[in-house]
Amino acid sequence: MSYWFARQAEIKVLVEREAALRADIEQLSAWGKWTVDYVKISRALDYLSKGRLSEEQREMLTEQIWQISRSYATDPLLILAVVAQESRGNPNARGRKQSGAYSGALGLMQIKLETAKKMSAHFGLQIETEEDLLKPEINVTVGTAYLIRLISKYGNWKDALIAYNLGHSAVDRMLQSGKPLPTKYYEHVISKYRKLTELDFKTSDQQPVYDDKWQME
Question: How far is Cα 140 from Cα 90, in angstroms, rounded to an integer?
C-alpha cells in the first residue's frame, strides 16, 4: 500500500511538472510570435515610409501598433495595409477629392480633424490643430482606435474597412436599404496586406527595396 501511495505521489509530481512545462512552452511560443510581429511592423513601416519617418518615430509607431495588435488580437499588417492605402506611408499626406480640392484628411491614416477631436478625449490626447494630427504617433493612435471601433460595430473587417473609407453613416444607410456595399477600397487594402506579408522579414540588416507599383492602385 505504501508503495502505491509513493507511486501516486511521483505521478502527481510528474503531471504537475508536465503542466508547468507545457505552460512555459506556450508562453515562449506567444513571446516568439510577438517578437516576430514586432519585427514585421518595424520593417513594414520602414518599407512604406521610405525614410520619411525618423528612427525615433518608427520605433514609437512600432511599439504602438504592436501593443494595439496584441490588445485587440488584430494582425498588425492589416493596420499597415490601411496606412499603405490611405497615405502610401507618407506622414505628411493631405487628402484630395476627385476635384482636386482639399478633403481635410491628414497623415498616415488620413484622419479628419473633426473626427480626431471627438476620438481624442477617450485617450487623453489634446488635438487642436492640423499640425497635432500630422504627428505620426497621434495620427496612428486615433486612426487605429477609429478602425477598431468600426470593427466592433460591424463585427467584421470588410464592412469596417468600407465604413472607414465611406463613413459609417453612409454604410449604415446602404445596409438598411439592402444596397450592396462597394468593395473596391476593401479589395485594395487586402491586396496591399497580401503584398506586405510577402516582404522578407528575416534579414533585418538588409535595406528594404522600395517598389511603388503595388501602391499605385
Answer: 12
Calpha distance 36→159 (Å, rounded): 28
pTM strictly above 0.85 = no
200, 173, 171, 176: which is closest to 186 by C-alpha? 171
Which residue numbers in the chain have pLDDT < 50?
21, 24-25, 27-32, 203-217
Give the whole-angstrom CA distance, residue 87 versus residue 84.
Answer: 6
Instruction: Tell me which long-range contacts 55-59 makes (C-beta under 8 A, separation of at least 24).
Output: 57/91, 57/136, 57/137
Task: Give first-to-last CA distance, the chain, whole Å.
Answer: 77
Beta carbons within 8 Å of 182's beta carbon, 6+ residues apart: 162, 166
Which residues neighbour 133 within 8 Å (Cβ) at sequence distance 6 or greater? 106, 107, 111, 113, 116, 127, 139, 142
Give pLDDT, residue 34: 57
Q: Going by C-beta distance under 8 Å and a sequence separation of 6 or more, which residues neighbour residue 65?
A: 41, 45, 76, 79, 80, 140, 144
pLDDT at 14: 57
- The DSSP symbol for 216 reads G
Question: DSSP labels for 38-95?
Answer: HHHHHHHHHHHHTT-S-HHHHHHHHHHHHHHHHHTT--HHHHHHHHHHHHTT-TT-EE
The pLDDT tens digits of the residues spanning 37-80 come to 888 899 999 999 998 999 999 999 999 999 888 888 889 999 99
